[in-house]
Amino acid sequence: MQTIHIQASDTLFFRDAKPFELSEESWASSMFPNISPSTFLGAIRTAFGTQNNLDVTKIKDSTLEATIKNFGITVGNELSGEIYPTFAMPRDLIGNGGKTKGLQIVDNTFSSNPFKKVLLNDTSEKSEDLEDFRMSLEDFQAYLNGTKVFSYDKNKTLFHLDDFCVIESKIGIGRDKSKNVTRESALYRAGMNRMEGKKGKLHFFATLNNIILEKEGILKLGGENKTALYQEGILVDVDCPTVDNNTFLFKLYLFTPAIFQNGSIPDFINSQSCEGEINGIEVQLLTSAIGRFIPYGGFDLDKNCPKALYKAVPAGSVYYFALKNKNQPQKQIEQLIHFFNTEKNSISTERKNEGFGIVYVANI
After folding, report:
1. Residue 343 contacts by C-beta under 8 Å, 6 or more apart in sequence?
2. Rounded CA gap, 16 and 63, in Å?
3. 10 Å Cβ neighbour count for 324?
4. For a pLDDT cut of 90, what percent of the chain falls above it?
5. Which long-range contacts (CB under 8 A, 24 or more apart) does 173-178 make?
6. Between the CA of residue 162 and those of 47, 132, 193, 255, what are the distances in Å?
7. Given this model, what pLDDT does residue 276 score?
8. Spatial separation of the C-alpha atoms in residues 206 and 195, rounded to whole Å
9. What sign does the dihedral 58-60-65-70 (CA atoms) show?
10. Nearest Cα to 139, choosing from 105, 99, 104?
11. Is the peptide bond before 241 cis (omega within 30 degrees of 0)?
């Protein structure tokens, strides 16, 4: 496998799935930071074809087995040999007075959903949404081991995306390609993302399988095919959490979005009984803390048509599980940690080869 570190040379635009028509009232909005890893896989395949002088049909045949095993956002100033990932805020944490706190898991005695447990805020104080914050590698390591309190105010350890990314509005006009003139009533505005703010730059990383690029080069990203530099690097990954021998509870944290046929419930779980099996281990889904669905589509250059549109559970969503078999719980959870945290297997039903559904096992 190969890990590459990607740095934008200009503004990038990752348009969301909302309908967009050219007119002076139209604003094309970006889905950043909820970008699709498949966008990067397409750029990587194109770069592979360019580097090997392949035409479109041969690119497809040569990269059929290509997959993204890991994908995310990094923070830094320049391209470097070591890559430190950042993490979307877990949805089971809320902000309160400059610090985070964990939602409390309690018996479900009042909700009609099939879960046995629910997550509640046990204080009447005003809480804050932390969706625009990111976790550092060090903080996320602590989260996997059960820590729930982090600072995001003074001397904060969490950081806000606005400090590393700026939205720049762009006004453009559509063109009639047949006549090489501007089109009437075709003004549009778009929110472009400049991956640099007052505290540093945002980069991306991708770990590739069954495809190898040159050690450094150029990718074309986003809706306008803006250039980005990439360089081979080493990913500093998360250490596996320590598992208590007496616990039979664990949670799965979504590092990248996941697409399920059952909506928000993973497809290895029966939606009525909330029971299922993960890699041969019987589990019960107790409850979840998820964000709003995000639609992901794309365009198939080979078929010259849009890809199917899917609703995905966003990164940062968390699922709470209990082991059904209470015999040797530590061994079972450690097997799941190896399966997900180490081997980076996906729980997504659709488009898992494109980097969807990467998860980490964490302590509750």
Report:
1. none
2. 26
3. 14
4. 34
5. 173/22, 174/22
6. 30, 8, 11, 20
7. 94
8. 17
9. positive
10. 99
11. no
Pairing of strands 216-221, 226-232: antiparallel
Task: Choose among 241, 325, 215, 239: nearest CA to 281.
Answer: 325
Question: What CATH class is the domain 90-130+240-362?
Answer: mainly beta
**Which residues touch 158 (CB under 8 Å, ≥6 apart)?**
89, 100, 130, 133, 134, 135, 136, 139, 150, 151, 152
Helix (H, G, I), strand (E, B) or coil at 20: coil
From the number of C-beta atoms within 10 Å of its C-beta (0-12, 13-18, 19+), residue 168 rates as: exposed
What is d(CA 122, CA 134) in angstroms, rounded to the nearest whole number?
A: 24
For β-strands 281-289 and 275-278, DSSP reports them as: antiparallel
User: Do 313 and 346 contact (CB within 8 A), yes or no?
Assistant: no
* pLDDT tens digits along 229-261: 999 988 888 899 999 888 899 999 999 999 999
Nearest-angstrom CA–CA distance, 290 and 103: 12
Per-residue model confidence as pLDDT tens digits over 268-302: 999 889 999 999 999 999 999 998 898 887 777 66
Domain ranges of the chain: 2-85+163-235, 90-130+240-362
Bridge partners (DSSP) listed for residue 167: 193
Place of tokens 């625009």: 132
Q: Name the residue with tokens 């019960």.
A: 284
State how far the Cα of 334 lies from the Cα of 328, in Å rounded to an integer.
Answer: 10
Neighbours of 326 (CB within 10 A): 9
| pLDDT (average), residues 55-71 | 85
Instruction: Please report where in the chains the tokens 């969706």 appear, as a residue.
Output: 131
pLDDT at 155: 47
Question: With contact defined as beta carbons under 8 Å apart, do 118 and 108 qualify?
Answer: yes
By C-alpha distance, which of 286, 196, 257 is closest to 39?
Answer: 257
Closest CA to 201 of 233, 229, 235, 238: 229
List of E strands, 224-358:
226-232, 234-235, 249-254, 275-278, 281-289, 294-296, 299-300, 305-306, 310-312, 318-323
Spatial CA neighbour of 142 closest among 74, 239, 249, 70: 239
